[in-house]
Amino acid sequence: MGDARRETDRARHEAADWFTRLSQPSVTTDALREFRAWRSAPENRAAYEKVERVWGAAGALAGDPEVMALGQRSSRRRQRSRRSGMTGWTWVAPAAAALALAIAAFIAWNVRATVYESGVGEQRVVRLEDGSVLRLNTDSRAVIRFGDEERRIQLTRGEALFEVAHERARPFIVEAGGAEVRALGTRFDVRRTAEGVDVVLLQGVVQVQSGDDASVTLKPNQRVAVAGAQIRPVTTADVSRLTSWTDGRLVFDETPLAEAVAEVNRYSARKVRLEAAGMQGSAVSGAFRTGDAEAFAAAVAAIFDLQVAEGRGGVLILKRAVPDGA
């Protein structure tokens, strides 16, 4: 079973390379003869036909940051493996090569993929085929692909907590934006943000790698943010607070009010809007039930002497109280 899967992966990558090579303006007779010999194998012919079918969508794929990131990582791995002497196709135009890698990445990613999603205010717990546990936070999406050599998950939206079953021969890899988190047996949290990706380690050891191959190793109760290709300095994490969502709570500790409002809104279909000038940075502390925007708004109004008004669409507006007689 493992040999068959590796053979399929090999054919898939070689098909993308051949498609790029044959797309050049000039192709030699020797190259065509070599291609026909390669394509005579049934698994190679099937892989090449699949690349041709995907080609119609190549324009959209080439601009997709997730697919291109996967293709670029594949390119770096392949370049390292070819330094030992396999140089026959290094002349391929960079733009065409990148597109072919995007196609190969698209095919590799979507075949045998399982997708799990959660809605706003919903949590979802899934036991994966290897015994690992995936806990999706509100409004999150994860794509799962397990192979013989690695277990790979792409977090395309939101946040997830991973409890990884130990398998030394198959690393557990989570992709999110420009970050890649690699583990064997451990517990960690990954969250996509507007700025990039946050990783918090609860137990074990993980390696966090950015798009330019820079990396850091986290120990328990440490946190790191990745913005684009830049890895920020590692900091100490308040794990109980950062993972309180798993218990259905949001815990704030001297959190700026604007940030707390944004966090509450992640879990509720009914939103809170702060319209009190000068209050954005006011510190708020306390524990609130996820999804209960009304209780949060009422508590904040009481603490900061604000009033809650209902706006269009049921939005809860926090604004300064109007003095009596004004």
UniProtKB/TrEMBL annotation:
What keywords does the record list, in alphabetical order? Membrane, Transmembrane, Transmembrane helix
- Whether Transmembrane helix counts among this entry's keywords is yes
Q: Where are the transmembrane segments?
A: 86-109
Superkingdom of the source species:
Bacteria
Mind telling me which InterPro entries this protein's record contains?
Answer: FecR, FecR_N, Ferrdict_sens_TM
Q: Tell me which residues make up the FecR protein domain.
A: 115-207
Keyword DNA-binding attributed = no
FecR N-terminal domain ranges (all copies) = 14-54
Under Pfam families, the record lists:
DUF4880, FecR
Q: What is this protein called?
A: FecR family protein
